[in-house]
Amino acid sequence: MAAHKNHSLVARLRFAIAGLRHGWRTEKSLRTHALAVVLLLSVLAVLRPAVVWWALTILVSAAVIAAELFNTALEHLADHLHPDQHPQIRIVKDSAAAAVLVLAVAALAIAVALLISLERS
Questions:
Q1: What is the pLDDT of residue 6?
Q2: What is the SS3 string spanning 19-53?
Q3: What are the Cα distances from residue 101, in Å, to 23, 67, 75?
Q4: pLDDT of amino acid 2
Q5: b or e along 76-88 (b: 16 or more beta carbons within 10 Å of the residue's beta carbon)?
Q6: What is the CATH architecture assignment of 2-120?
């Protein structure tokens, strides 16, 4: 186990980028969320809201992408450890997917709040 610890920063960045690449190639929902982030940034560039709105939307967008990556990792681990369908594994996978859903709904709520805020100003 110790052989997998204390890698250089460059090596750790390579591992992280490999995880992003894998997620991008294999997870349609990750690509969908990434497209939503690009669209969101385009809308922010046009609307030019206060900096706090940029911070909020970028933070929640990053959280959604991170949750999607955690969900992917958990699903792969669960499938590796228990390839057959099992009720407990299903609960694990459904709960991870629910975490992504909760963050995606929060992101939508922040977008609505932003639009309401801009409409009032």
A1: 87
A2: HHHHHHHHCHHHHHHHHHHHHHHHHHHHHCCCHHH
A3: 17, 9, 15
A4: 59
A5: eebeeeeeeeeee
A6: Orthogonal Bundle (1.10)
d(Cα 55, Cα 52) in Å, to the nearest integer? Answer: 5
Residues in the chain: 121
Task: Calculate Rg over the CA atoms of the chain.
Answer: 18
Tokens encoding 111? 């977008």
Q: 3: pLDDT confidence band, cut at 50, 70 and 90?
A: low
Between the two ends of the chain, the Cα-to-Cα distance in Å is 56
Look-up: residue for tokens 């969900």?
Answer: 71
Residues with Cβ within 8 Å of residue 40, at least 6 apart in sequence: 57, 61, 111
